Amino acid sequence: MTRYYVFNGDADGLCALQQLRLVEPADATLVTGVKRDIALLERVHASAGDECTVLDVSLDVNRAGLLALLQAGASVRYFDHHHAGEVPVHARFEPHLDPSPTVCTALLVDRHLEGRHRDWAITGAFGDSLGEQATELAEAQGHGNDASLALKELGVCLNYNAYGETIADLHVPPAELAEEMRGHADPLAFARVSATYQALRKGYEDDMRKARELEPARRVSGAVLYVLPDMPWARRASGVFANEVARAHKKSAIAIVSVKSSGDYLVSLRVPAESKVAADEFCRRFPSGGGRRTAAGINHLPQAELEVFAEQFLQFFSQE
């Protein structure tokens, strides 16, 4: 029997995985990639009796891969908070799906494990920009301001590391980062001893300093659009920068457009919780779009469609 863990390479996927591996220490094959590399189940070639756990990637995007695994005789356990579409019913399929805007995959795993490694769930929630939920759990755990801040910084840096067009854009491949995290029950201890994490913190600070110097390409009441330069640092900073700009403009939708090596674009979208138009709903207007209600994206926006996207974004979210 082979065990597979298939997970998003961001903070939420990593922290969900970390919790499970602490209670399931057996070796497993890891399948992951950059943040937007989410069609992952097609890479798993499992057989009857194999076990596959999927973390923080859309079921809707991975439907064909999921059905193929079940047909091959594998068992699949699925934790996710993105749009799922129709959920299959099968004796060897165990879904843990919740698209609520106040949960992330790390919190779904925490729910499943009844809080056995909650500090890693808190780290994942901070990284997934669920600051209110993470802070509340940290306080319930008895953490003071310093500990909560350390968990937040770790979550943000883990999340920052996943953004890039390819693995080469990242400081550390997510699978390597997962292996370094493995065995550390205490994320605060991991943050203190990990030289890799300290390098991530420095990279984050350097990249975000450059991002904060940028000006919006378009801005109206209710909508802010940035187009980032064609540089690795900009691709790395794109997701965390989107979250930061969203916190600074809480009543506005935020679109961050990054240039891909092909000359086409990748889009990160954040919208207020009370927005009449959901982020994933808007992004699914484009062929490679998806996500969840308050945070979504478009994996491939053709160069010729940038102006169409910009006009629709401003039209849909303008409050004027």
Task: Write up what this structure looks like.
The chain has 320 residues and is α/β, with parallel strands linked by helices. The chain has two domains: 3-203, inorganic pyrophosphatase (n-terminal core) (Alpha-Beta Complex); 218-317, Diaminopimelate Epimerase, Chain A, domain 1 (Roll). 42% of the residues lie in helices and 17% in strands. It is built from twelve helices and eleven strands. A six-stranded mixed β-sheet has the order 6-7-8-9-11-10, sandwiched between helices. A five-stranded parallel β-sheet has the order 2-1-3-4-5, sandwiched between helices. Strand 7 (223-227), helix 10 (232-248) and strand 8 form a beta-alpha-beta unit. Helix 1 runs antiparallel to helix 4 (118-127), helix 4 (118-127) runs antiparallel to helix 5 and helix 4 packs across helix 6. The longest helix has 17 residues, at 145-161.
Strand and helix layout:
Layout: E1 3-7, H1 11-23, E2 29-31, E3 51-55, H2 63-72, E4 75-80, E5 93-97, H3 105-112, H4 118-127, H5 131-140, H6 145-161, H7 174-181, H8 187-193, H9 195-211, E6 218-220, E7 223-227, H10 232-248, E8 253-259, E9 265-270, H11 279-283, E10 289-291, E11 295-301, H12 306-317
Parallel strand pairs: 1-2, 1-3, 3-4, 4-5, 7-8
Antiparallel strand pairs: 6-7, 8-9, 9-11, 10-11
Helix pairs in contact: 1-3, 1-4, 3-4, 4-5, 4-6, 6-9, 6-10, 9-10
Kindly report the CATH topology of the largest domain.
Answer: inorganic pyrophosphatase (n-terminal core)
How far the N terminus sits from the C terminus, by CA atoms, comes to: 59 Å
Helix content: 40-55%
Radius of gyration: 19 Å
Q: Number of helix segments?
A: 12
Q: For this structure, what is the CATH class of the largest domain?
A: Alpha Beta
Number of strands: 11
Q: How do the strands of the widest beta sheet line up side by side?
A: 6-7-8-9-11-10
Mean pLDDT: 95
